[in-house]
């Protein structure tokens, strides 16, 4: 590899020029330098800063970032081989082609650097190349070793995953589902003041406050300090100077670190907004009745914030633009920052888009058209070289369409017809050169608007999320047909007599009709009364029936309504999952009864490891509809019990009932850390971890649960609510019983929890007798003459039958 590197070394002359006073003209690149001098000592114009920073001693539980071999190899394999050689003269192609052989060496270097929080000096050495922006302004670009560039990409990806969601919502850089389109669109409603900041960093304390571990903060500090740096113009090199401040342009971590440094720079007044995209900052002030006090105070506060955080405002490049459509306009007083007047402009370029004070997009269209026409020439040259149409189309999409569609969602909708024709003319010219049809500029705008709207709607943290109001979720004909075809033919029909076999057989013919009915119901927020009619079938839970508590009420609803509920349920599950209680295991992704049982056992066993501890488990049961029916109903034969139209209850057997119950009880949580409230839909278990015989927290939690149920119109069934005590202490005293609403809770030795029988000695005897046996149940459907006609509410019919 060394021989290969030597062959790539620059053979031209290299001159080392000693330091001279003019060096400060290049390093202080944000100010306008003097005209370029022909003196060969010009590259030595570098200014030296020294900042005394001390590394923080990591705590004992500090977790050091450890990179994996796969990540390092993947990053080395993605190196662009066409880039120029860096200060170490290692060609990028060497790292790309030899990634498999070099990964073992670099993974050890990277992890040692992270664990010791020290960056090797050879990896921090960089060369500054001044790139002219204008005739009198140069932009310094840092050339660093490509190995360090790959290293910083890995660190940057880790930092982005560790950032809290509490970052400034108006910072659009380095955030998922954010782009320059969002920043421009957010700022277009308001007046603009563009501020350009110098790159000076003092951020280690803020990184610690954001939750980054101490080792990583120390590593970043070591990277930012003691960096050998030289300036190169052509083959002329300045002498090396060590810097301990800032991070030059071209550094991978610089924009992200600046974003984290300014995350707490936000507007204080509700009429002002600070919109940021990395270091591009815009202050937007909404001014009413000529009162600019809040706006000017915000600018002064921003100036003070920059001074407190070692940032310098470049007043020469700071511009102000006033958007004023009033008829009687007056002269606007200039804005002063650090006793310097800010220039008021009629247009400015913000994140690549030209904004005008009259919000007209002709200047932006002219700029885009000029750039796209320049690229059309290269497309024509490729056509002359007889390249095939697919290659020409690829070049068009990468160089011309990307220019035309840059931030198109922010400006195209308000362009004039003349601007539309100008942009479409470029597309037609490209079509003639390529010889294929291309998407029109209007189609590009429509596609990107829909894509942008969907991404904003799916992201509740997006600043523009509140601007969208979703219509009721429509159900397509394909969705309805698919769920009809999934029906089981052997299922019993509903109260309306419609069988699942009929819907499955005629799915193609009925899908369109029912999709219209379903969407109309969602649009009007009304469910047809014929769909809400249900028949209650009491199913015995035990062979020996002693009362109504031994029945399980199951609702027979319309098969069509059941399918409708499934479609709505699929939509609700996607949006309610993150909102549910973490200890609610029903209707959650990657959750099951196994997780609920395992979590309950984990709480129990973890607590019992300590001496003098025991656990009390309360298996809560809520009253069902059959507890409200008359007791004499079970003494007759096959009868119909007509109940009033219910507005407050959803019976068992309804598809949406468990999810609605889970959402209804979502705020029912434990307030004491020693008491856990475990839920799986309506199966609720209170697990109390008791130590030294202190049951006050447990009993107080039960009282709060009973009060919550009373407040939320839920009735605790004290006859079916039981308690089990897990106690492995040798000298076990008699424990006082639990009382709920003046009723003593029964204590049991075992209980069937979510299909698993748990005993108080935590033994898993497979010969355990089942709590109940399944017996044959006769289901009687009402005839047409006996059907109950529903009115405004949902009518319920209870069918009771003897075995």
From TrEMBL:
CDD domains: RT_nLTR_like. Pfam families: ALKBH8_N, RVT_1. It comes from the Eukaryota. Residues 112-355, 520-758 form the Reverse transcriptase domain. GO terms for molecular function: 2-oxoglutarate-dependent dioxygenase activity; methyltransferase activity. Signal peptide: none annotated. This is Reverse transcriptase domain-containing protein.
């Amino acid at each position: 590899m060394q021989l290969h590197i030597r062959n790539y070394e620059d053979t031209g002359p290299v001159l080392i020029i000693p330091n001279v006073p003019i060096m400060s003209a290049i390093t202080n690149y944000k100010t306008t330098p003097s005209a370029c001098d022909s003196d060969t000592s010009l590259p030595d114009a570098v200014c030296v800063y020294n900042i005394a920073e001390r590394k923080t001693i990591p705590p004992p539980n500090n977790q050091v970032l450890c990179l994996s071999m796969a990540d390092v190899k993947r990053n080395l394999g993605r190196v662009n081989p066409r880039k120029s050689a860096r200060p170490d003269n290692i060609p990028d192609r060497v790292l790309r082609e030899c990634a498999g052989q070099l990964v073992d060496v670099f993974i050890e270097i990277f992890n040692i650097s992270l664990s010791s929080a020290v960056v090797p000096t050879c990896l921090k050495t960089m060369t500054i190349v001044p790139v002219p922006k204008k005739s009198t302004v140069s932009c310094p670009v840092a050339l660093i070793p490509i190995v360090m560039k790959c290293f910083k990409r890995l660190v940057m990806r880790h930092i982005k995953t560790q950032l809290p969601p509490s970052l400034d919502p108006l910072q659009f850089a380095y955030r998922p589902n954010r782009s320059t389109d969002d920043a421009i669109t957010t700022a277009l409603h308001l007046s603009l003041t563009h501020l350009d900041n110098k790159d000076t960093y003092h951020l280690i304390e803020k990184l610690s406050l954001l939750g980054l571990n101490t080792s990583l903060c120390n590593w970043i500090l070591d990277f930012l300090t003691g960096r050998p740096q030289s300036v190169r113009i052509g083959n002329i090199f300045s002498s090396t100077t060590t810097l301990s401040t800032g991070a030059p342009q071209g550094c991978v971590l610089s924009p992200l670190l600046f974003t984290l440094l300014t995350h707490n720079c936000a507007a204080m007044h509700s009429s002002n907004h600070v919109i940021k995209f990395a270091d591009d900052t815009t202050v937007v002030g909404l001014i009413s009745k000529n009162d600019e006090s809040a706006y000017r105070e915000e600018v002064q506060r921003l100036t003070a914030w920059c001074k407190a955080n070692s940032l310098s405002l470049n007043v020469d490049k700071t511009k102000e633009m006033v958007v004023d459509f009033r008829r009687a306009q007056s002269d606007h007083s200039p804005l002063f920052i650090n006793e310097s007047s800010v220039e008021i402009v009629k247009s400015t370029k913000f994140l690549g888009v030209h904004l005008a004070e009259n919000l007209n997009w002709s200047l932006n269209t002219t700029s885009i058209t000029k750039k796209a026409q320049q690229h059309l020439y290269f497309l024509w040259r490729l056509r002359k070289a007889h390249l095939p149409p697919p290659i020409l189309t690829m070049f068009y999409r990468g160089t011309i369409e990307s220019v035309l569609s840059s931030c198109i969602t922010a400006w195209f909708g308000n362009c004039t017809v003349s601007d539309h024709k100008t942009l479409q003319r470029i597309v037609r010219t490209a079509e003639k050169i390529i010889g294929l049809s291309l998407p029109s500029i209007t189609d590009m705008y429509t596609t990107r608007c829909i894509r942008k709207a969907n991404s904003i709607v799916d992201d509740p943290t997006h600043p523009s999320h509140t601007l969208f109001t979703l219509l009721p979720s429509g159900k397509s004909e394909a969705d309805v047909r698919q769920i009809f075809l999934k029906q089981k033919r052997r299922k019993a029909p509903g109260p309306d007599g419609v069988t699942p076999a009929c819907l499955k057989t005629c799915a193609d013919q009925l899908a369109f009709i029912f999709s219209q009915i379903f969407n109309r119901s969602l649009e009007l927020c009304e469910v047809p009364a014929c769909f809400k009619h249900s028949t209650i079938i009491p199913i015995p839970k035990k062979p020996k029936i002693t009362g109504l508590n031994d029945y399980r009420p199951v609702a027979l609803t319309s098969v069509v309504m059941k399918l409708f509920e499934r479609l709505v349920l699929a939509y609700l599950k996607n949006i309610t999952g993150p909102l549910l209680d973490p200890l609610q295991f029903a209707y959650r992704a990657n959750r099951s009864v196994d997780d609920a049982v395992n979590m309950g056992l984990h709480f129990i066993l973890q607590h019992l490891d300590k001496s003098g501890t025991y656990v009390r488990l309360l298996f809560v049961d809520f009253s069902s509809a059959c507890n409200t029916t008359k007791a004499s109903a079970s003494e007759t034969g096959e009868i119909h019990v007509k109940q009033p139209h219910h507005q407050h209850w959803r019976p068992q057997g309804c598809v949406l009932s468990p999810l609605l119950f889970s959402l209804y009880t979502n705020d029912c949580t434990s307030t004491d850390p020693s008491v856990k409230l475990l839920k799986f839909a309506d199966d609720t278990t209170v697990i109390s971890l008791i130590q030294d015989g202190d049951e006050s927290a447990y009993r107080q939690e039960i009282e709060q649960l009973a009060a919550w149920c009373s407040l939320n119109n839920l009735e605790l069934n004290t006859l079916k609510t039981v308690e089990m005590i897990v106690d492995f202490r040798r000298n076990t005293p008699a424990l006082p019983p639990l009382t709920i609403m003046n009723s003593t809770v029964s204590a049991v030795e075992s209980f069937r929890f979510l299909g698993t029988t748990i005993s108080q000695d935590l033994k898993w005897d497979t010969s355990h007798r089942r709590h109940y046996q399944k017996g044959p149940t006769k289901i009687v459907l009402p005839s047409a003459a006996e059907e109950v006609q529903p009115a405004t509410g949902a009518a319920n019919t209870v069918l009771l039958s003897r075995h």
